[in-house]
Amino acid sequence: MNDEARLKTWNTYQAAWGPIDEDERRRLLEQSVVADCVYTDPGSQVEGRDALMARIGQTQLKFPGAHFRNDSFLEHHDQGLFRWTMYDGAGRVFVTGESFGRFGDDGRLVQATGFFEVPAAKS
Question: Cα–Cα distance between 96 and 84 in angstroms, integer?
Fold first, then answer.
C-alpha cells in the first residue's frame, strides 16, 4: 500500500467523524477501520468499530456539525502522523491536533490515537 492509498483511508476515516447519518458513518468506518480497531484520545479509549461509532456519535451530539480537515500527513512503515483542524458547525476553527494511525495488512486502520488539548467549557 502506498502513501496515497493510506491518505485516502485516513480521509475516509476522518469523514466518518462529520455530520452524516449513521448508515453513511458505518459505511465509511467499514472502509477505513478494522472491526477490532482501537481508538484513543485524551478523554476516551474504545475498542471495536461499534464502540467507535458510538464515540463519534457522542462527539456529534456534543458538538453538532463538527467536521475535520486534514492539514498534513507523514507516513512510513504502515504508520501515519496526521495534523488536522476540527471546525464547529458554523465553520469556525474549534481545535487543532495530531493523530497517530497504524495500518493493518489490508490497508485499514487498526489503531488511531488523537492528541489535542481538550477545549475548555464555555460559560
Answer: 6
pLDDT in tens, 13-45: 999 999 999 999 999 999 999 999 999 999 999
The burial class, CB within 10 Å (0-12 / 13-18 / 19+), for 17 is buried
C-alpha cell at 90: 458554523
The reported pTM is: 0.92
Torsion, Cα 64 99 71 15, to 10 degrees, reads -40
Give the right CATH number for 3-116 from 3.30.1330.30, 3.50.50.60, 3.30.1490.20, 3.10.450.50. Answer: 3.10.450.50
